[in-house]
Task: structure prediction
Amino acid sequence: MNVIVRIATDDDLSAIAAIIERAVDRLQGDYLSRSEIEASRRFMGVDTQLVRDATYFCAVVDDRIAGCGGWSWRRTLFGGDDAGDLIDPAPLDPACEPARIRAMYTHPDYVRRGIGMAILTAAEDAARAAGFREIDLMSTLAGEPLYRRCGYHPIAERVHYADVPLIPMRKRL
Result:
């Protein structure tokens, strides 16, 4: 399977939103209750700031977007455009603060085919090139196995946001 990772554009937003909807609905079921999945919709979604910053990627297979995700040099750790109190656009200092992995989603038809790893690698490479030495993320329970395989480790106990369990994780770049 040939995966092409490229920077996302505004033209990709509707496809990204559809992938997020499918991923939240279908890939969280082994980890979350139906009410937790519904609660996660309150903060999981498209983050157009990442697209404007050109730090968000699409993984394309056969001209179809199979996954999306990115990184950020801003303080926001997780949450889409509608996440309200989670959004903090202030810049991070790469000399002493970790970058952020953000909004990683894979279309359910493409899981376990290297899509997430390809996006994660592109995001880490870009953060490293921007001078960051560490990178943080807030993992869902479904995402934790991928992040552990890629060298991330929990940095605190599970937290709950909107009744959804999440795991703060970090990696040295």
Summary: Residues 13-27 form the longest helix (15 residues). The two ends are 27 Å apart (CA to CA).
